[in-house]
Amino acid sequence: MAAVLDALAPYVQKLITDIAGEEVSMLLGVSSEITKLEDNVGSIKAFLTDAERRRITDQSVQRWARKLKDAMYDATDIMDLCQLEADKRRESEGGGLKEKVPSCFQPLLFCLRNPVFAHEIGSQIKELNQRLEAIYKEADRFKFNIGLGSNPELRKLTDVESASMKTSSEFNESAIVGEKIDKDTKELSHVLINDNKLNIKVVSVVGAGGMGKTTLAQKIFKEKTIQEQFKVRIWLCITQYFDEANLLRTAIEHAGGDHGGKQDKSLLMRTLTNILSKDKFLLVMDDVWSEKAWNNVLSIPILNASDKQTGNRVLVTTRLEDLAQRMQASFHQHHVSPLNEEDAWSLLKKQLPPQHNQVVGMDHLKDVGMKIIKKCGGLPLAVKVMGGLLSTRSQSELEWEAVLNHHAWSVVGLPKELDNRIYLSYEDLSPQLKQCFLYCSLFPKATNIGKINIIPMWISEGFIQPQHGSSSRGYQLEDIANEYHRDLIMRNLIEPTRDTDADGYYCTMHDVVRSFAEFMTREESLLVQDEQTPGGSNHSLLRRLSIGSTKSEPEWGILEMQKSIRTLLINQRIYIKPNDSLCSLSRLRVLLIRGNTGVWWANKFEVTPWVPDFPVHMDMDKDGAWCSLEEIGPLSQLKWLTVHGLDNVSRSSSAKKARINSKKHLTYLELYWSSSEFIGSWDGEIEKQQQQQAAEEVIEKLCPPPWIQHVWITGYFGRMLPNWMMVAATVAFKSLKHLKLEDLPCCTKLPNGLCQLPSLEHMYIVNAPAIKSIGLEFQVSSSFEVGGGVVTAISAAFPSLIRLCLDGLCEWEEWHWEEHAVDVTAGTIGMPALRQLVISNCKLSVLPPGLANSKREALRELGLSRLSNLTSVENFPSVVELGMFDCPKLKRINSLTRLQNIRIIRCPNVEVLEGVPLLYSMELEDRTMETLPVYLRDVNPRYLKLTCSKKLYESIMSGSSSENDKISHIETRDIGYLQDSDAA
């Protein structure tokens, strides 16, 4: 992270407020100094937003900001020392004082019992106040804008910034390359002109930042057919902090009207309505970041004017997937694709000056140029910026190789054009979210950013703060962090990997975005790769260090020099000697160890004050030379634990010594075996049975504590899952919300206790090929025995389950689920809260009656993929979204009375689609069909996306085909075709 000033200061102030009380501070003898510290931090908060912005380009502000950050970090260290001393005293006294004294007073009261410590703390606070007062006085010369300090709605771009950010309808031909943009232009122009009977239609061009959305819109805006069709054409660039009246005045001017200098919003809206009511119009809203411009300003005049005539259109470019459908109009969505490499190469050459871009002499640069292109990820903006950078270099392989191999582009400053685009996205983030975003750049480029890793790190660093009124602090912090994670994905600042699930458990950061983040964090954070070392005077005050080099093995002694390190990520082998220690890293809060790393970790954690409270990730070495489960035992305060290489643990006694079940703060547990590698090495059936038995014994001893919230088991090759997942044991896990069982090659049966988990919300079972049937495991019994006594079961199976994913159970043929008489009598059904169900890659031929229950009202989304034997989907009255993929025997889809959106992809034998009266949107794809399905005559969606063979496409588009009659009643049609090579 670069500590974002307007997030760090409030965090520090809250620490001071929480830890200090008037009576206690008086007893401590530093009452005035603590009050002064809180006041000093509060005074500085007022102008930090402006300081944070200006430090990027003003070196003197940057130096001032660095002093302030160092002081703020020192303040957190002082508060931490108080808390640590309090915790030590509490443990030594058996916690007796805890019940007598309010929690906010405890740390300082404990300090009173150690007068030497109290004097030291008082001296440090006094010295810190002197530093802050000097920093505050120094700020006077920068004339910071106090108005930007606290309210994000007041943050406005300056006139110069705003002008440089805005787009217009004019475009530079140097940004146009390839046939794809011509094809997209013609397609979208046709969509805009077609269906004149519609009063208003919204066309949304969606894609990541820098993908070319604006360029495509500009090209459409200049098309001759568009100019002929729309007499009134308006181009509006919707900046983040737009002025409502000014936006309306601009629209009136572009429409050829006169706003008369009006300031009143309602009068301007009325003027715009009158102008647009006279002629058919096209409105382009470029670079829309939220619904505010539409909802608060433009929707009323646009919709009112559209009531008086047909054929009006709105073209929107945005990163928001669902913006168009929230605009109260018929809509069409188009996703902009990345440039292919050849088109990107052409675009890059267009950026070079004439003396560079000679036909002769460019071929020898193409190989290195293509490598640079790959780093741009198909983003036209990134390609253009890199072309501009290369235009400043001589036309030689050596110079281009230097650009290609530049370790951190941001170290020497990013090109201005790229800065503006990413900076705009960055400025839209809250201060807390900025910190979370920047923190992601600590993960090496080749490493996925695991949600299970990054969220506890954010919490540990203090980036996630509880909201007012929260009754459960730990639960809410995780909730807020999950929202931040989703927000970053939505904004395309991190991107889910292709094979991740819907929650984005694994993400990556694009190189262009990473360069920006590294630039912003350059003074506080360092990602060491290739042959770098973390030492050196330039990094003497590093706060965060990530080591991901594959070519060097820095020694621990170098790391011990980094006294200010708060986060240490080790993603490679690093040489650690027996006498090495974490003692010198006294401020360490986050430690992530991935890769073949050292031994003797347990004693290091014991002498490091903060690490035991935060995430730890450990690997079990094959020869046991450097890490063992026993070393986890002393880490009693662990909250998040990931253990890899469990196939190398052969003794259950070692697993037992890890004492997983007794860790009072453990909420996240991930256990990994390497099943695919290990199974292939077995020598015969006897060894197979021995290894399976060992794995079964080990997992039994890794039972999590009752308060666990997240369990992820991957690669386990035992024949049975552990007894702590059976019905008599799972009643203890009342807090478990997330469960993922992945890659279980030998497990033949799921445990029967899963359905009893009262708080389970998300369950994923992935790649379990030995399971052939599911029945009682997913149903409750009326009672069962525990310790000789009878316990009444919960009233419904999976009472809190929201999302269920069953993927890769490739031999699964039967799902027995009938609602029992006891359920009917009680008026309950299994999985009553289930909203989303995904089933993929199995042999089910029918969905169970218990699933298709008329009382099931929560189920909204149903996704069925690669079900080779499935013949029908019927009687799901609550389902709104249905996706069918690669189900070759599917024939009937019937009685989905609330269905609004359906996708039928590569299901060639569907004959019946009926009982779907509310159907709004339909997508049908099958490159093999020779005629359109007859059922299309009997359904009436407003929108149809049809992808078929080229022959059928041409027949439909001819207009004379009987095939066209089957879909002529559908209001909006988007028809395309697939060549054989295009089909998935």
TrEMBL record:
Residue ranges annotated for the Disease resistance protein winged helix domain, each copy included: 442-517
Ranges for domain Disease resistance N-terminal: 13-93
CDD domains attached to this UniProt entry: RX-CC_like
Gene3D superfamilies, alphabetized: 1.20.5.4130, Helical domain of apoptotic protease-activating factors, P-loop containing nucleotide triphosphate hydrolases, Ribonuclease Inhibitor, Winged helix-like DNA-binding domain superfamily/Winged helix DNA-binding domain
One GO biological process term: plant-type hypersensitive response
Signal peptide feature range: none
Name recorded for this polypeptide: Uncharacterized protein
Organism: Urochloa decumbens
